[in-house]
Amino acid sequence: MILTQFDLTGKTAIVTGSSTGLGQAMALGLAQAGADIVGVYNSTPPTNAGDIESLDRRFLGIKADLSDIDSVDLIMNQAVEAFSTIDILVNNAGIIRRNDALTFSEKDWDDVMNVNLKTLFFLCQAIAKHFVEHKKKGKIINIASMLSFQGGIKVPSYTSSKSGVLGLTRLLACEWASRGINVNAIAPGYMATANTQPIRDDPGRNRQILERIPAGAWGNPEDLQGAVVFLASNAADYVHGFTLAVDGGWLAR
Q: What is the end-to-end Cα distance of the chain in Å, rounded?
């Protein structure tokens, strides 16, 4: 039966940025599909650990600063110690800094690139080494953005990092598909999260965005659950290097 291809029972997923917003919703969706969850967070512990455990799934929270690539070894060591093996990585954690390109600082550039692209790559590398060492297939899902396809305004480092995520996803798929490692990405549209709160609070920008979205509404974090479960499952075994937009039709406009 086709629905069994979406079953993640017995799998373990690492989800970065799992304490709020998109990461929180995706972690819960993966757990609902059967996966145990390693939730990586920076400051606020995930509030949905109880919801995940109520599904008879195991949950491990790991506090890590993803601006420092030393966090990669910390995450992998604790996750493998707790669960023996990892099957899925969701690189969701990301930060954003807003300022005009003319006055954008080096610190704001480096801070965003370190979290959104540098550590993301080295987490991909670490999990791929784990898959190869254990001679197993695995799934890597990177979280891209509408700004992987477009320029945006006043977010030069964020746009650059998310454009890099799309390109890196393609490269890693080309290198690792033959090893049974699926590397894909999800590009969320305009979602109601903390990152977009400043835009939603601006009546002019909010109106402009809603007028452009064919669905006529901001997305909710739960809208990513189906996409992440699909890409993490056996149903997506022949999907490699693709960035799936979940955007209410934004890119089709």
A: 36
Domain 6-247, architecture per CATH: 3-Layer(aba) Sandwich (3.40)
Half-sphere exposure of 109 (CA within 13 A, CB side): 9
Assessment of whether the complete model's pTM goes beyond 0.90: yes
Per residue in 61-76, is it b (16+ CB within 10 Å) or e — as a string? ebbbebbebebbeebb
Write the pLDDT tens digit of every residue in 76-108: 999 999 999 999 999 999 999 999 999 999 999
CA–CA separation, 103 and 199 (whole Å): 20
> 10 Å Cβ neighbour count for 242?
15
Structure tokens at 140: 């890597």
| 13 φψ region: left (φ > 0), alpha (ψ -120 to 50), beta (else) | beta
Domain boundaries, the chain: 6-247
> DSSP per residue over 203-234, as a string?
HHHHHHHHHH-TT-S-B-GGGGHHHHHHHHSG
Per-residue pLDDT tens over the stretch 138-154: 999 999 999 999 999 99
DSSP assignment of 64-121, as one string? --TTSTHHHHHHHHHHHHHHS---EEEE---------TTT--HHHHHHHHIIIIIHHH
CB 124 within 8 A of CB 70: no
User: Which residues are part of the catalytic machinery?
Assistant: 158
| Dihedral in degrees, nearest 10, Cα atoms 73, 78, 79, 83 | 140
Do the beta carbons of residue 16 and residue 90 sit within 8 Å? yes
